[in-house]
Amino acid sequence: MKAILVCTSVSHGNTKRIADLIGHVLEARVVTPDQLEPAELAGYDLVGFGSGIFLGSFHARLREFVESLPQEPRRRAFVFATSGFPEARWQPFTRPMVNLLEQKGFEVAGAFSCRAFDTYAPFKLVGGIRKHRPNGADLAAARAFGERLRARTDAGSW
After folding, report:
1. pLDDT digits (tens, 9 = 90+) for 65-76
2. Which segments constitute the Flavodoxin-like domain (predicted)?
3. CATH superfamily of 3-155
4. Is 90 within 8 Å of 50 (Cβ atoms)?
5. Among 59, 134, 140, 138, which residue's Cα sits nearest to residue 93?
6. Residue ranges of the domains in the chain?
7. Is residue 3 within 8 Å of residue 45, measured between CB atoms?
8. pLDDT score for 152
């Protein structure tokens, strides 16, 4: 299996930590959207897309990269995110990215999110929230997510 993770991590490196951990499990490169030509994705069996969440959405740079992809049949993808707040069940912030990837021809294998240190806007005034996140439990959950993706890919059980 050949995998790659496309990650935008701009604030505190939270998402990059998660990407590096999942990438290690999948033996995958971790790149930013500007380090990759969209056509290169055709050479991968599994592509991860992740960023921090800003006002309920993935980072604009990652969204623009995915939006720029031509619509064509593709292989599998997954999404991952870090956020100061948990995903709301009635309006998950991963859903719009999953929908966009499916429109671009990907089969989306899953989504992972965890809480992370957040100093956006008003939180900066109080020194931020979730100062010790992602923590050991978050990292263990990210590793387990990567291992499940790897096991499914290795077993061909999609």
Report:
1. 999 998 888 889
2. 4-150
3. Flavodoxin domain (3.40.50.360)
4. no
5. 59
6. 3-155
7. yes
8. 85
